[in-house]
Design a protein that fits this description.
Two copies of one chain form a homodimer. Helices cover about 40% and strands about 15% of the residues of chain A. The first copy, chain A, has about 725 residues and is α/β, with parallel strands linked by helices. A seven-stranded mixed beta sheet of chain A has the order 1-11-13-12-14-16-15, with helices on both faces. A four-stranded parallel beta sheet of chain A has the order 5-6-7-9. A three-stranded antiparallel beta sheet of chain A has the order 2-10-4, with no helix packed on it.
Chain lengths: ~725, ~725
């Protein structure tokens, strides 16, 4: 393995031309000669891609509401199956039987007063918005419930919001809370509300985060109009994703199932999402203290915390049916190493029509499959096996991908070299996250993809945005001097979770975006009509995504030396450990000062006596932690990752297998505290952030949640994982 | 002179009791024995103060609209005159003839569409809100004008907002701008608009800064309702305040007057303030780019920059009359040093009823005069002469105080030991700003004033708020360790300006506030009814203000050694110079990086191509400046201010006179660039901030405005001023 570093002069060239001549390029895992051939192959691949065809696919697959369990959902799966077959792939359905509740009854009202509409209107400017078969606006996995209680506004519903409520003397116990979308994943909001004793939870889209505050509303502009509602799952998937009844195992027809009450990923309270039109009367009904500035949204009213003078009434029931979940699995057998799989996936189910989410990504993936099929017809065969997957049931909780991955866990841990995920896609900047051993590869791939709007490489454009958006001149300078981009770490929110965080399979997630902002997400307005106006007019970024994911697939499939760069993993994890030491030191300093402010009565002196705001509670002092075992482990990884490039075993099948299986060494068998399904010691979704990643989650969350005694245990688990990886790579490389 | 430093143990005691026993106290300028007597005098003074009487004064003086030139304005002056006389003072009117325009015609409309109401409605909850004689809603000193043009939204109307407009390709030339109140002084907004070629300016109160966003609106709560309008002056008083026709000279009946066209403090375009109810249709009429996030307010609409599809029409005319300006001047002759004056002032004119602004401060000042009058009846005589002033015409532009100060400039520069100003006052924290040689005195005074709500000293409470609101744990720790408070520097916005910035008389401004926020400012709702509910219920802080200002007056009046502490001035100015070197270094670094980002096309790469936003213009590089002359001058001041306390001349009349006249050494005869009226080299209102102070303004504004060649010249002027002060103090102290 060779580590590629951008020469500075090339980076400058990139800025002007965005392209290098093929003969100037090095590719990780390839000899110069093989690299030239691979780039020619990619050029031929590109010639097979058609953005018009991507657009046609989006139009066709988003033509009807097609959620899991629906007739059109099955039709979409069948269409994808037929497409793969027609492209020359060996495709079949992999069907699971999963729980998926849909609403029977939805009622939200101020008894004797306002009754919420709970309905998005059809618009003449949006051809599919009035179709039959739309799922009503709801949060999937809400409990059944019929509750009446006082209402309390809890801001974003974060743990710290409840700390403020405690200072304000407002309890949510026995009450219904109203939280707004944003800042944390939606499922975190009712979970934290439930932890604090709430009996129901309303989640609404405030126009500050999602509405007229951001731009003209649909259909005039892209942003959420007053009636738009964000549907979405509130499965507690930071415990485990997938079918709640079959954790750790595939939800086959005959699988052993938990009872619903036993499923720890299900909340116990009723939860309902509403529009800002519906939210306004409820917010206006609130009394109590005025909400602090950070809590205020963009509705034309004074935000109060509550409770209100009147009780409100929320009644919800669901059908709780087991439904078929149709994954499509398409394979193209490798010519040399058929038992090494390059797995690629995107889901096909939507909340409603889902032109952007997920069809924009699905269409790009199908375009890759079509292009590769054409290359095969021209005589090309990938050296490794390609496995292209179209997942069902992602929206309720990554059901299809999780069940398939759990069902094939052992085989995947043997064979899967990588899992490459996409989901929704739009105009803007490259988003790339995943296993950091793949960072070099991602940079090399992105270096050759031309941004459709600016003509520079997508990496150069991403570097520009990172430099411009850095907070200080000093950080801007650093970003300007940096070679390539850092890829992000993955939390949750799409189908990579089981692969990476449960099975330790190196994973990537790609998607373009940032100039496609709008309010269509999980609403009936995520339609083809919306998409072609606001998300990716001309489907240029659909094409860019096909290129990005397709080139990555092909480079991994054909590389003699698998293109993993564990040096980048070492550097990244080392950076995380530095962050953790700074986190602990910062928390220690702020705790000391805050406690001093509290003990010296500064809060009482400063707080407006008319506001009756209590001082915060004294917090336990932050002890000093022994990070040295982990730092020593990283010193070992430092040495071995520097030496890997010189291993005599490079290119051997055994060494390649060791490279792609190495990330499994970072799994901790017992998993994370209170959520054993999550076994990766470096990447996990945050317990209180949901989609948002926590890196080195065991240690980071123990510090953030002030579980001091847990910190050392978790440092121990990560240390052991890093030492396992070091020893494993040493043995594999024979050094 | 002795410098007092809080012993730490006392500071701790203060936190618990807020009070020290009299015998434990040192007072700057007093022997221990004299200090004890002075504190007893202050205790007797306090016994004469009545918060009920302060409330009664507020009720009486705010009973009718009483702007300058109105019948009730004259009646208020007469009442104050009678009061001073009845308290035993030698009082008289000092009348000037000043220009003061009131509206003849006001029209704002979308022709064929919305016509602005331009009217605040009477409320049954506010007894004076429906009275006759209210000034209509207007910006005083707007030009006459009848203009029709496209409308452009310019955010707060700051210079940097126009930089963004240029990037967005939107010009205001020949157009009318709409700016919102906040961030800069209101007069800066039309001034900058005019500089950019606008033909008219509307200023509105956005509910984000001043309305329902902040709390319940009047009359339910304190905040601005949709019809409330902030009147106010737009005199370009950073050029010079006071009567525009008589700069530098008192506007006596026979004074030489400029023609109106010659007055450089008058703008040339029509300007009108409006409510958010009136602003909404105009903002909704705008097209063009969506305003960037920092520009968006709290109205329920998408903020666009414009221009709008339709032109709008603004028509204003004014009567431009010369009107009498009635200052009340009350004196109490000093027993020992009658030619040393302690001058104290507060204005009496209001925009409408002005219960808070200015009557809350006026009532406290009258209460002091009453109490001192009682002490005099009991046999007390101040050693220095007290001069209590009630100013007319402050609202249009500090007219009364400026004309009086200009008229008595020579006498004041000889006799005025200090000028102590107050204005509106309310519940909350001590605000104290002014000449830093008085910082020690202010801390000693505040140490003995008990905060009515918390029972600690007002200094301890202020320290607590400074510690809590510091940005980082490190800064919080520093604030917690600090002894006493730093007083602020004065910009403009009340009647101290002529005394401090034109004449170099040491000045202070006091006021409580921070828990009295509301939307009544300069509206018909600044009423007694509003005041007693939201500003200072029970008039506790009115009493605290009487104590604070009164004790300060008495301590200066009776001190054998005048309580100036030039060490604090040295420390403060030295801090400002450090700020300036950091400002230059930071600007240099950010300019380099920004220019690199622009030259490397990063802005084009990052900017959403759909938004057509140009990159910023390349800026000139920031040269290195020679601060060493000023740093050397400060080293000299360092030495002399350390030695002052040991001067053998302490307590001599000549030394005392030198101490209070010393600040005049900091005046620069030529004044600041483009505004010679402002002569103080350390304190001035900012050219583009208005009320907001710029310290060491010549140098700071040259850097901020990128006038590189001016920086050295201004460093020279400040250096000369500091050297003059050092030499002067050396001579005076005989060291």
């Amino acid at each position: 393995m060779t580590t590629y570093h951008f020469p500075r002069i090339l980076a400058l060239l990139l800025c002007t031309t965005g392209l290098l001549r093929a003969q100037d390029k090095k590719l990780i895992g390839y000899t110069p000669e093989a690299a030239g051939k691979q780039l020619e192959l990619e050029a031929r691949f590109d010639q097979q891609l058609s953005r018009q065809h991507i657009g046609e696919t989006i139009r066709q697959l988003s033509a009807h509401p097609h959620h899991i369990g629906s007739a059109h959902g099955k039709a979409v799966a069948d269409e994808i199956l037929q497409r793969f077959k027609s492209y020359g792939w060996d495709a079949s359905l992999a069907t699971y039987q999963v729980l998926f509740p849909t609403p029977k009854e939805r009622l939200l009202e101020i008894p004797g007063g306002y009754k919420a509409l709970l309905k998005e209107p059809a618009l003449k400017e949006d051809a599919t918005s009035g179709q039959e078969g739309q799922l009503p606006t709801y949060n999937c996995w809400s409990a059944d419930g019929d509750v009446t209680g006082e209402l309390v506004y809890v801001n974003f519903g974060l743990p710290e919001d409840y700390e403020y409520l405690e200072r304000a003397g407002v309890s949510v116990k026995g009450k219904i809370v109203i939280a707004k979308y944003g800042r944390s994943w939606r499922g975190t909001k009712p979970k934290v509300a439930q932890e604090h004793g709430a009996i129901g939870c309303i989640i609404y889209s405030d126009p500050k985060e999602d509405g007229y505050y951001n731009g003209d509303v649909y259909p005039k502009g892209a942003f959420k109009n007053e009636y738009g509602v964000q549907r979405g799952s509130i499965l507690d998937m930071v415990i485990y994703p997938g079918d709640p009844l079959t954790p750790n195992t595939g939800a086959t027809a005959d699988a052993r199932r938990l009872k619903r009450e036993e499923a720890t990923s299900l909340l116990k309270i009723p939860v309902l999402p509403i529009s800002y039109h519906d939210a306004r009367p409820f917010l206006e009904s609130l009394g109590g203290p005025v909400a602090p500035p950070e809590w205020r949204g963009a509705l034309p009213l004074t935000y109060h915390i509550g409770p209100g003078k009147e009780k409100i009434h929320l009644k919800l029931s669901f059908d709780w049916q087991i439904r078929p979940c149709y994954n499509v699995i398409a394979k193209l057998k490798g010519s040399e190493w058929p038992d090494e799989w390059v797995v690629r996936g995107n889901h096909h189910d939507a909340w409603v029509n889902g032109a952007a989410d997920p069809i924009s990504g699905m269409a790009s993936q199908l375009e890759e499959a079509k292009a590769i099929g054409e290359l095969v017809k021209q005589g090309y065969r990938p050296r490794r096996t390609l496995v292209y997957c179209a997942w069902d049931g992602e929206e309720p909780g990554l059901l299809g991908s999780t069940e398939w991955a759990e069902d094939h866990a052992a085989e995947l841990q043997q064979k899967a070299v990588v899992y490459i995920n996409t989901d929704n896609n739009g105009r803007g900047f490259l988003g790339a996250s995943g296993s950091h051993a793949l960072e070099t590869l991602v940079n090399e791939v992105g270096r050759d993809i031309i941004d459709p709007q600016t003509g520079v490489s997508v990496i150069a454009r991403k570097q520009a945005v990172e430099a411009l958006s850095a907070a200080t001149p000093k950080l801007k300078k650093e970003k300007l001097a940096k070679q390539g981009i850092a890829i992000g770490a993955m939390g949750s929110g799409s189908d990579y979770s089981a692969f990476l965080q449960h099975l330790g399979i190196p994973s990537l997630n790609y998607g373009y975006g940032g100039e496609d902002a709008g309010g269509e997400y999980h609403s009936i307005y995520d339609s083809y009509d919306d998409f072609v106006r606001f998300k990716d007019p001309g489907f240029h970024y659909g094409l860019a995504l096909s290129q990005t994911a397709g080139h990555t697939v092909l480079r991994i499939a054909d590389a003699v030396n698998l293109p993993f760069d564990y040096r980048k993993l070492y550097e990244t994890v080392n950076g995380y450990v530095n962050e953790l030491t700074e986190l602990a030191a910062g928390l220690r300093e702020s705790t000391l000062v805050e406690n001093q402010l509290i003990r010296e009565n500064k809060y009482q002196l400063v707080t407006d006596t008319a506001k009756h705001l209590l001082p915060p509670a004294i917090k336990t002092a932050v002890p000093y932690f022994d990070f040295s075992p982990l730092q020593n482990a990283l010193a070992g990884l430092d040495t071995v990752t520097l030496a890997l490039a010189n291993s005599k075993k490079q290119g051997s099948p055994a060494f390649n297998k060791a490279l792609y299986q190495a990330e499994q060494q970072l799994l901790h068998t017992a998993g994370l505290p209170a959520r054993p399904w999550y076994k990766h010691t470096i990447y996990a979704p945050g317990f209180y952030t949901g989609y948002g990643v926590k890196t080195i989650p065991g240690v980071r969350e123990a510090i953030e949640q002030r579980q001091w005694s847990e910190v050392g245990t978790q440092i121990g688990a990560v240390t052991a994982a890093v030492n396992r990886l070091t020893a494993y790579l040493k043995t594999a490389a024979g050094i």
